[in-house]
Amino acid sequence: MERRSLAVVLFMFYSLILFGGGLWLGHSGWPLNQLGLVSSRMPPEATESFDPFWETWNLVSERFYEQPIDPEMLTEGAIDGMLATLEDPHTRYLPPALEESARQSMEGELQGIGVLVEMVEGRITIVSPFDGSPAEEVGLLPGDVLLEANGQDLSELDLTEAAELIRGPAGTTVDLVVERNGETFEVEVTRAVVEIPSVRAEMLEENLIYLRINRFGNRTEEELEDTLEPLLAQNPRGLILDLRNNPGGGLDAAVDVADHFLDEGIILRERFGTGQERVFESTSGGLAQNIPIAVLINQGSASASEVLAGAIRDRGRGVLVGTQTFGKGTVQTWHALSNGGGVRITTARWLTPDDNWVGVGTGEGGLTPDIVVELPTETPDPDRAPEDTQLQAAIDHLLQSASAAQQ
User: Fold this and answer.
1) Which residues have C-beta within 8 Å of that of residue 107, sequence separation ≥ 6?
2) With bands split at pLDDT 50, 70 and 90, how would you rate the model's confidence at 34?
3) Residue 61 has pLDDT above 60, yes or no
4) Rounded distance, CA 316 to CA 330, Å?
5) Which site in 155, 263, 284, 345 is 20 to 30 Å from 257, CA atoms measured?
């Protein structure tokens, strides 16, 4: 029975890798066995290839000196090992607890410190803390490297294992050792239930809309419409779209949001390993397709936020202000497994409307802003936060553009 269960899991991955025809199902998140794509029998052509695996399974199960052996542990280890051979940091297995947490975060709720991490050059690196999260409150920043959690050396763990140590029930604490710019420091973070609306906005005194999108979740488009419509009714001069420290989220959500800012045309191209493409296009009738736009970006802007920023610039709808983005130019599909776990599989590269790929990894890819502005790290008044020079640069640009248009 244990062999049969493992065969089901392994064949599912085998099918995903070999058959591109199932790629369109990737955004559904349905368990593939419910769609009739997974057989409970090992295909004849795969039997010989898996013989060494079963031989090893039996040897470990029967002869390893510490008994009994947990079959679930072996199964998950086999999946992790198989995905590791692909050498793609974004293709990974999530055990049931992490799968549940990931899906909760798409709904706008999670328990932990509220931070997105990626494996960058073998190190657990913060892409961005979520707005209002415990991580943000203690001052963790994009690019910080997490070295230890509660005394456990994270360099010996993969991304999934490290995330399990960092997450935890609300009210508990985790002691982190963090590296920033070559220096290390310790910080205690109290975990919480992080419930964050993905959109917030306000009218600035310059009669400009400030619109902040901190992630792309299942309700982001709905939140955008509810937030933006009353502000647009006030006849603003322009709109500042803040995507700084936005780690991404659902591709479909980013496309739906982009449709509100772009008239008919291409939002992005999804290019598969076969050379085939899937093109996402915007339509007419969005909420804010004519208002001047400036987009704020930084190193913490990744994935779906880069999709939106890249589309706005390539389509001539606005300028990018700030610093270079993270550079996550691949698309992952989410698949639920029968054991409650899940797998994220990189299925394609995404390209901007002008056919540009942002690349993968910090420093080698990403979107370079039209107006490069660094944030100050110090302020003359220690009781005041440093000035948001990036926001001010966006305000100045929109006001100058508006004045020029009136002349």
Assistant:
1) 217, 218, 219
2) very low
3) yes
4) 23
5) 345
CB–CB of 12/83 below 8 Å? no
Question: The tokens of 373 are what?
Answer: 């502005």
Residues found in the chain: 407
Residue tagged active-site, from 88, 328, 383, 401: 328
Q: What is the pTM of this model?
A: 0.69
Please, what is the angle between helix 96-106 and helix 159-166, to 10°?
A: 70
CB neighbourhood size of 256 (10 A): 20
The conformation of residue 65, written as its DSSP 8-state character, comes to S
| Contacts (Cβ under 8 Å, ≥6 apart) of 226 | none
Per residue in 103-125, pLDDT (tens digit) is 766 665 678 898 878 788 888 99
**pLDDT-above-90 percentage for the chain:** 49
Cβ-count burial of 171 within 10 angstroms (0-12 exposed, 13-18 middle, 19+ buried)? Answer: exposed
Q: Which of 15, 314, 354, 396 is catalytic?
A: 314
For residue 19, pLDDT beyond 80? no
For the question of residue 388 being annotated catalytic, the response is no
For residue 235, how many C-alpha atoms fall within 13 Å in the half-sphere facing its CB?
0
Structural contact between residues 90 and 117, judged by C-beta atoms closer than 8 angstroms: no
The three-class DSSP label of residue 71 is helix
Given 105, 133, 303, 305, the catalytic residue: 303
Which residue has tokens 């100058």?
400
| Active site annotation includes 303 | yes
